[in-house]
Amino acid sequence: MINIQKYNLQVIKESGGRYDLSRTIRSAAAARDVFIEVLNLDKRAEEVFAMITLDVKSKITGVFEVSIGSLSGALVTPREVFKRAILTNSKALIFAHNHPSGEPEPSADDISITKKLVKSGKIIGIDVFDHLILGNENDNYISLKSEGYID
Fold first, then answer.
1. Domain boundary assignment for the chain
2. Per the CATH hierarchy, to which homologous superfamily does domain 30-137 belong?
3. Please, what is the Cα angle at 147 between 128 and 93, to 5 degrees?
4. What is the pLDDT of residues 109-126, one digit of tens each?
């Protein structure tokens, strides 16, 4: 006889709130508004990598802080990102992270992790719609999709 552990996966909601935002994400600006309103991503003193999970109709199913880093970076791995996406039955994702310096220019690491996440998503059938980099002003952001880094 052997002992075998049986596991059950559950998603437990941390907290929620009512926001005057569109439930369906149709633009980078709409996604930016969610990241700012729900996570205050434009005001954080450390770099935070976050994501919005979407269903097949691009409706928000969840908002996650995936990684909280330091002033100059946050560790992000496909495993941590897609674990959350799979648990929420997501069809698509939108990523964002802030640059505490206030300058949203993408670094080589930003571009590299974006490409890695897009490739990982294609393998498991979860689309990456965009990756936003936010500065410290409301309209100071860059869409890596608009910049041509995401097809």
1. 30-137
2. Cytidine Deaminase, domain 2 (3.40.140.10)
3. 15
4. 999 999 999 999 999 999
